[in-house]
Amino acid sequence: MKLIHARKLMLVLLMMAVAAAGFAGGQREGEVIRIGVAGAHSGDLASYGLPTVNAAELVAEQFNERGGINGARIQLIVEDDVCQPEVAANIAAKLVGDRVAAVIGHICSGATFAALGTYLDSGIVVISPSATAPDLTQSGEYPNFFRTIASDDAQARMQVEFALNELGVRRIAVLHDRGDYGRGLAENARDSIEADGRGEVVVFDGVTPGAVDYSAIIARIEAANAEAIIYGGYHPEASRIVGQMRDRGMDTLFISGDGVKDDTFIQTAGPASEGVYATGPMDLSGNPIAIEGARRHREKYGEDPGPFFIEAYAAALALFNAIEAGGATFDGISNALRTNTVDTSVGPVRFDARGDAEGVGFAVYQVQNGQYVELR
């Protein structure tokens, strides 16, 4: 009897060991791997977040059609943070409770900052297609964070160099929307102007998000004889500022970032959007994986993909390949992202020690005849 009991005990322990080995980041690898997809899926900034949901769905379908990841089906858990930090913090707690192995998102830098600590405490990797605040990687506080887009310091330097070298302006107003993304972009632009020495920041200030009337700050810019504005923020405020400047008869040049490089800005600002400059991810429409992703998007959703789709498609490919190579644990995913090079829609991707994708960058665009055209 004792021998039988001992064998039963050994069998139970063996089964428990096998079960424990099958769990990675909260997932039983032979069944399902849960992946969170977090971002703005409603509200003014939904046009930035929904393309990431579509990208994740398309790449997950691709993997699931060929048997999943090491036999495990990918299950997406989609959560809307409306790009609000307090909502993002709650979403992070929910996704931890849902036992996700990793998260694609968040979309906005402020929301990403608010959520990252919760994910880090739970050993969950996060990969964003669009959160560009430099401190997300440069502070060293978030070893669980990766992104498939360049950071704002590079974007700001490009804006300043373009303004000084190509547009020949010297008197520049720098505005922001007081959020983590917008303020960070503006501060980097201000610092780049001051470091260069050829230009002068004649106004540096934040605007109130959601306001209807920006006439006070516009009057200050006009009184300061600013030749150009560099703006850090998103398209709702940018469209109002540009529209009210043009209504006032001002031809001050307007330069912004990827928060404005969206067709929604053109639709909202209308004719006032003509001539506006914006930096954004380089045009990768010639990349074969990007071409295939866009084709599948049109086939499934009946329209062209929106902003950050290509970066999100790359994020999903990089993440799923990392899980396939290293397993669905924090160390396995992180190590694979940093050591393996994966062909993606933004080109071959491998991440440096900080979590930034090597080789990705920005370009300058201008609104011409109602559409953004890449200049350089």
How would you characterize this protein structure?
This protein has helices at 2-22, 46-65, 85-97, 109-121, 135-138, 152-166, 180-196, 215-223, 235-247, 263-269, 288-301, 309-326, 330-339, and strands at 23-24, 27-28, 32-39, 73-80, 102-104, 125-128, 145-147, 171-176, 200-206, 228-232, 253-256, 277-281, 342-344, 347-349, 362-368, 371-374. It has 376 residues and is an alpha/beta fold. It folds into 2 domains: 11-149 and 285-360, 3-Layer(aba) Sandwich (Rossmann fold), CATH 3.40.50.2300; 153-257, 3-Layer(aba) Sandwich (Rossmann fold), CATH 3.40.50. A 7-stranded mixed sheet has the order 9-8-10-11-12-15-16, with helices on both faces. A 5-stranded parallel sheet has the order 4-3-5-6-7, with helices on both faces. Helix 7 (180-196) links the parallel strand 8 (171-176) and strand 9. Mean pLDDT is 92; it is low at 1-29.
Question: CATH homologous superfamily of the largest domain, by name?
Answer: Response regulator
Order of helices and strands: HEEEHEHEHEHEHEHEHEHEHEHHHEEEE
Instruction: Kindly name the structural category.
Output: alpha/beta
Outline = elongated
